[in-house]
Specification:
- The chain is built from 15 helices and ten strands.
- Among the domains are: 1-38, N-terminal domain of TfIIb; 92-279, no CATH class.
- By secondary structure, it is an alpha+beta fold.
- Helix 6 runs antiparallel to helix 7.
- The longest helix is centred in the middle third of the chain and has 17 residues, at 203-219.
- The protein has helices at residues 42-53, 67-73, 126-133, 150-157, 167-178, 185-197, 203-219, 221-224, 241-256, 265-268, 278-294, 300-313, 321-327, 331-341, 360-363, and strands spanning 14-18, 24-27, 34-36, 92-101, 104-110, 115-121, 141-144, 162-165, 227-229, 236-238.
- It is elongated, with a radius of gyration of 28 Å.
């Protein structure tokens, strides 16, 4: 055991009896100052807390039903893990959002190996996406499922980044309109084209698919142009509105050049590119949902923090427990920032900051007393 140092003069201390509580007392022979050794086990407890949170273990299986664990680790629910800003430029970035409640979503950005950023907001709007993108250098290609507001934010924050729309999500958008058993011949053919889209993996097959889709649009142009009077609104509308919606969605992707970006020779010269968001859906979102399901019953605040903890621990170089305790903000730190800015005019011309998309008071109970079950 290392020698106890005097807090006054810095000299070596010697044992000097016990306190009433039975703790060892130390005295400095030079200045006669006394003190006791305080052992800080916060880092060890935080490591145990994260080990429980990121696993499937239940508190009910712990000694005493987990009561001691809850009491010792309650303070760690006050911490907000913040995404590190490294400035590293990545070739491909995957982005998506996971909803924790109807009006609470966590937007997540990952590479093929690590999580590189996350942002909590009210919805997938352009300001929320912009807040996430502002922390990450523009990649060469971004793979997305086409969430609302993403393209507007991408043009502003990552104007030189090429977009690859997840072809599986593109297929699902068509399937949503046609169903798997379409009744009309036009729907049967369009659903078949959507399934073929999943197998277009080369430039030749992609060209053949585009030609087949163009032929389908020409063959059914008059049929899709039919209009019918809506008796409820008294206005004319598309007779086959669902087919028109599916067609227009594919046309938009083709015109923007988002459907077959992964086959662009200028981009594939450095290696193949992904065509789907499966890396994020299966590698991140599925694991997050599994974690929240195993720890079901958490409040919205704690579900959000659980997602933040998972994302942070899956970054490239997460800090150790001691470093986290020394650098990460707590509820009190965030609340103080909120109190300082809540009455100031919001800057609508810049990116959203933490809590701008989702008001802090909506997550935190503004009560003068402690809420144990929060």
């Amino acid at each position: 055991m290392s020698r106890q140092k005097c807090p006054v003069c810095g000299g070596d201390m010697i044992k000097y009896g016990k306190t009433k509580a039975g703790s060892q007392r130390w005295q400095c022979p030079k200045c006669k100052a006394t003190s006791t050794r305080r052992i800080d086990n916060a880092a060890k407890l935080l490591a145990a807390f994260l080990g429980w949170l990121l696993s499937g273990r239940r508190q009910a299986d712990m000694p005493g039903g987990g009561r001691t664990f809850r009491r010792k680790c309650a303070r760690f629910w006050e911490i907000w893990p913040i995404a590190p800003i490294t400035g590293e430029v990545h070739r491909v970035v995957f982005v998506d959002g996971i909803y924790l409640a109807r009006n609470v979503v966590v937007l997540i950005a990952t590479t093929e190996e690590f999580v590189i950023g996350w942002h909590m907001a009210r919805s997938e709007n352009s300001r929320s996406w912009g807040a996430l993108m502002a922390k990450i250098p523009p990649p060469d290609v971004v793979v997305t499922d086409g969430g609302s507001g993403f393209e507007k934010a991408r043009k502003k924050n990552w104007p030189g980044t090429r977009v690859q729309r997840c072809v599986f999500h593109a297929f699902n958008q068509v399937k949503k309109q046609t169903t798997t058993r379409p009744k009309l011949q036009a729907g049967v053919e369009l659903y078949g084209l959507a399934k073929e889209l999943l197998h277009a993996k080369t430039v030749e097959s992609a060209t053949a698919w585009l030609q087949a889709f163009n032929d389908w649009c020409g063959r059914w142009e008059g049929f899709l142009a039919e209009r019918t009077l809506n008796e409820e609104t008294g206005k004319m509308g598309w007779t086959h509105e669902r087919l028109v919606t599916a067609r227009n969605g594919l046309i938009t992707l083709i015109k923007r050049g988002h459907l077959f970006t992964f086959l662009d020779p200028a981009l594939t010269a450095d290696g193949p590119l992904p065509s789907t968001n499966n890396k994020l859906e299966g590698g991140v979102n599925a694991q997050l949902r599994d974690m929240l399901r195993k720890h079901r019953g958490l409040s919205l605040m704690r579900r959000a923090k659980a997602v933040f903890w998972w994302c942070y621990m899956h970054t490239e170089c997460p800090l150790g427990a001691a470093g986290i305790l020394a650098t990460m903000p707590t509820d009190e730190d965030i609340a103080e920032l909120y109190r300082q800015t809540v009455y100031e005019p919001q800057k609508r011309d810049g990116p959203a900051e933490w809590g701008d998309g989702l008001v802090w008071s909506e997550l935190r109970h503004a009560l003068p007393w402690r809420v144990e079950w929060e």
